[in-house]
């Protein structure tokens, strides 16, 4: 079990550098109070007009029925490893608000900020998260009876870090491959966007 801490161009905080997306989870449970803290952290993310347009449906492995419902929406490749996480969370964007169902163009962006805040809080408690787009959105809306204005966006697996050796390929190789990111000069520009 090793945390993949990358080298950075600039002195990025340890909290950010230590956040990564493993697929190997240990059988250790996340304490209920810690899970509540992680979930509450999402509420402190910034959002347009403070609408907080996000919703989380979650289950721990102990809540077998709800956990199975969440597992049932995963695509097969993600199901192989995510079933070993301690918690599964379906993160959704609330795309309209108010009595007139006014569209919220920033709902997905705001949900992303909430998810990032949740994941950083998780690392404070030695918990790791892996965000997945590989799930059946239509089935998720049906299984969880979502209204029209609630859009399932990602599923998050949470748990304590396990051993890479417990994973089959191609997941083992992904787990042990060093992390990399684009260089700062490839995405941040002082002035005009390069042509």
From TrEMBL:
Q: Name one GO molecular function term.
A: oxidoreductase activity
Q: Which domain of life is it from?
A: Bacteria
List UniProt keywords, sorted A-Z. Answer: Oxidoreductase
Q: Where is the Nitroreductase domain?
A: 16-160
Task: Fetch the SUPFAM superfamilies from UniProt.
Answer: FMN-dependent nitroreductase-like (SSF55469)
Among Pfam families, the record links this protein to: Nitroreductase
**Which Gene3D superfamilies did the record assign?**
NADH Oxidase (3.40.109.10)
The record's family statement is: Belongs to the nitroreductase family.
**Protein's name in the database:** Nitroreductase
């Amino acid at each position: 079990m090793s945390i993949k801490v990358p080298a950075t161009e600039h002195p990025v905080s340890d909290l950010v550098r230590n956040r990564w997306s493993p697929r190997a989870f240990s059988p250790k449970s996340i304490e209920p109070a810690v899970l509540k803290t992680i979930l509450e952290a999402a509420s402190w993310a910034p959002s347009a007009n403070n609408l907080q347009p996000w919703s989380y449906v979650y289950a721990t492995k102990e809540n077998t029925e709800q956990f199975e419902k969440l597992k049932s929406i995963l695509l097969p490749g993600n199901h192989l490893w995510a079933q070993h996480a301690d918690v599964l969370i379906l993160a959704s964007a609330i795309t309209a608000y108010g009595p007139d169902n006014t569209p919220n163009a920033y709902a997905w962006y705001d949900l992303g900020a909430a998810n990032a805040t949740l994941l950083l809080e998780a690392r404070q408690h030695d918990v790791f998260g892996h965000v997945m787009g590989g799930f059946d959105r239509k089935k998720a809306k049906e299984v969880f009876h979502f209204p029209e204005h609630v859009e399932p966006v990602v599923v998050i697996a949470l748990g304590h870090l396990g051993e890479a050796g417990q994973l089959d390929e191609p997941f083992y190789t992904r787990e042990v491959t060093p992390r990399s990111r684009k260089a700062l000069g490839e995405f941040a520009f002082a002035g005009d966007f390069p042509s």
